[in-house]
Amino acid sequence: MLRGLYTAYTGMLAQQQKMDTISNNLANVNTIGFKKDAAVFESFKDVYKIKINDPEAIGQKSIGKGNLGVKVGEIYTDFTQGTFQQTDSPIDLALEGTGMFVIGVPNAEGELSYKYTRDGSFNMDSQGRLVTHEGFFLIGENGPITLTDTNIRISEEGNVFHGAELVDRVRTVDFENLNQLKKIGSNFYEAPETAGEKAFEGKVIQGFLESSNVSSMDEMIHMINVMRTYESNQKIITTYDTTLDKAVNEVGRV
Questions:
Q1: Do strands 123-124 and 143-144 pair parallel, antiparallel, or not at all (unpaired)?
Q2: Could you read off the pLDDT of 39-72 as tens digits, one per residue?
Q3: φ, ψ for residue 187, nearest 5 deg
Q4: How confident is the prediction for the chain on average, in pLDDT?
Q5: Amino acid 167: pLDDT
Q6: By CB distance 3.0 to 4.6 Å, which of 18, 33, 195, 252 could disulfide with 180?
Q7: In b/e form, how buried is each residue of 59-69, taking b as 16+ CB within 10 angstroms?
Q8: Within 10 A of 198 (CB to CB), how many other CB atoms are there?
Q9: C-alpha–C-alpha distance, residues 175 and 193, integer Å
């Protein structure tokens, strides 16, 4: 009986983790370039049920397999393309196809480590460098991209032109295994070696931003389903609790 109670508990815990994922998606429905997450459930490993102390059985006799419940096996990111929003700002960029902008994050010594993002809403700092909202650098082939003004043209290949002069080229990369990328907050990703960096084969679109790929309607439907499943497991636990109470306080008297 207690096994069923614990199994229902694992169901509630898994649904709570799924609810956290849905809530994060809804919180970022208007975040530029955000990619939604989803929870994948899996069961705990099956265990064998064995008869012991049975005079009719020789040794220990298997009576089948049982399962101890469900858990969240993986939180994966859906990299489906979001829709484009036109801004006409020359330093707003979007990527068509899978891939990332390369962002330089300086440490205390001024050395750059590289992070990745789909958020192409850039600003220009006091030194003319294109930066994210956090002040991190958009990286080009020659390092942080530096401009004299925003009167620029950026080709689909990422080449940055000031008039007829080629200033730099926006550095973009793609990955063999997108599921290896790790979200680290502020709409940035880290890429381990297992992600398999490769050349970006899509297009850089100037004057547009990519919206989040979160559908608020779909996420609300998922949220309702999670709440109903959670309540069902909660009722199961309540039923087990009532049954145990009767077994202890009523059957025990007899």
A1: unpaired
A2: 988 876 655 555 555 555 555 555 556 567 788 8
A3: 70, 25
A4: 89
A5: 95
A6: 195
A7: eeeeeeeeeeb
A8: 11
A9: 10
Distance in angstroms (rounded) separating the CA atoms of residues 251 and 247: 5
Q: How far is CA 176 from the centre of its chain?
A: 17
- Tell me how many helices (H) and strands (E) the chain has: 2, 21
Residue closest to 169 by CA, chosen among 101, 92, 120: 101
- Across the range 20-32, mean pLDDT stands at 96
Please, are residues 96 and 208 in contact by the beta-carbon 8 Å criterion?
no
DSSP 184-239: EETTEEE--GGG-EEE--SEEEETEEEPP---HHHHHHHHHHHHHHHHHHHHHHHH
- How confident is the model over 100-138, as pLDDT tens digits? 999 999 988 888 999 999 999 999 999 999 999 999 999
* Residues 167 and 138 sit within 8 Å (Cβ to Cβ): no
* Residues with Cβ within 8 Å of residue 132, at least 6 apart in sequence: 103, 117, 119, 121, 122, 123, 138
- The secondary structure of residue 128, as a DSSP letter, is S
Tokens of 126: 């006091």
Other Cβ atoms closer than 10 A to 227? 12
Distance CA 23, CA 245 (A): 36
The Cα 52–Cα 54 span in angstroms is 5
Burial class (CB in 10 A: 0-12, 13-18, 19+), 115: buried
